[in-house]
User: Fold this.
Amino acid sequence: MERFEKVKFKHYCKNESSKVIAVGNAKDFIAAYDTIDEAAEAVSKINIGESKWGVISILSPGESKEIELERVLYPEEDSWEFESGN
Assistant:
């Protein structure tokens, strides 16, 4: 079995606001809400498979979240070519 290289990303978010917030992958702010119920209802309408986030979290004021994401580097991805826009 072939093994591939991996890259790990660690993201941390702390809600220092007075609102309940939704965050994607513990790094992207999605929205702020007055209650956890409002946030839960809104987040339940997001299709994770069609979003850019692997994890969506709801954070109450003062709450924090840390996640670790892993990306496998496949052989066809280990060289990049950049084209000049000129």
